[in-house]
């Protein structure tokens, strides 16, 4: 519903009162004409100017013959309605109302000689002047509407870019978090493998040391002369026991090598993390433990 300024209300009230006389002067009104006129007056009193114009247009359509005074008054209504829309910041609606006003001014100028061929048209200059002024307003309003549309499109594009950038940042953050999780997981298992391999290496060293030492001593005793068969059998059992320790050393040595190799592979295949500054911009936590580059080890904190 369009509200019109107070200064326009007095003007429109005069038009409303004038809309009854033109129809009587130009043609005998019917009950339907009076009905639409009354509805138009009531809509105007309710400050529903656009609805009031619609009723008056319907009433004019029922009047027989040329109706230039109706056309002039309706044009004036549309002009005031356009001014109200323009003041309300609706340039496109204002331009449309102005176009309607121009159309009715043209009807007024065309129909006057037909309705009053012998009377002078005292409103011809005003109608022509209003048409010229409204045409200029329409051009300015449409330019303003296009400018506002361009600004809105720019603002929408900016918001769209910001949303896309935010979405891309979130995707980068999620990807970096995923890389960090994989990095930490592989780091953990690499250290577990490395520690277990080191422990297996220590066990290997102990087994080799004890096994080879015991085997050497037992073998010498086994080969010693002047011992009975029972002692020789006992020494052979010690040799076999020592060989078992050496065999255990071989096994643990293989396990240690496998674990250390696995640890190295895990270190080397960890996902590369983003640079520190980028991780800070993505609000991603610190790195986990030492970081192995492709060909070397760089020790970092926060392990």
Distance between the termini: 69 Å
Write down the domain tally: 2
Shape descriptor reads rod-shaped
**Structural classification:** mainly alpha
- What Rg is obtained from the alpha carbons, in whole angstroms? 50 Å
Counted by DSSP, the helix tally is 9
What strand line-up does the widest sheet have? 1-2
How helix-rich are the residues, as a percent range? over 70%
On the 0 to 100 scale, the average pLDDT is 80
Describe the structure.
The chain is mainly α and 303 residues long. It folds into two domains: 6-122; 181-298. Helices cover 79% and strands 1% of the residues. The chain contains nine helices and two strands, in the order H-H-H-H-H-H-H-H-H-E-E. The chain has helices at 6-18, 20-26, 31-45, 49-62, 68-87, 91-115, 124-223, 229-268, 276-281; strands at 291-292, 297-298. It has a two-stranded antiparallel sheet. Strand 1 and strand 2 (297-298) form a beta hairpin. It is rod-shaped. Mean pLDDT is 80; it is low at 4-14, 21-29 and 287-303.
Throw out a few tags for this protein:
303 residues; 2 domains; 79% helix
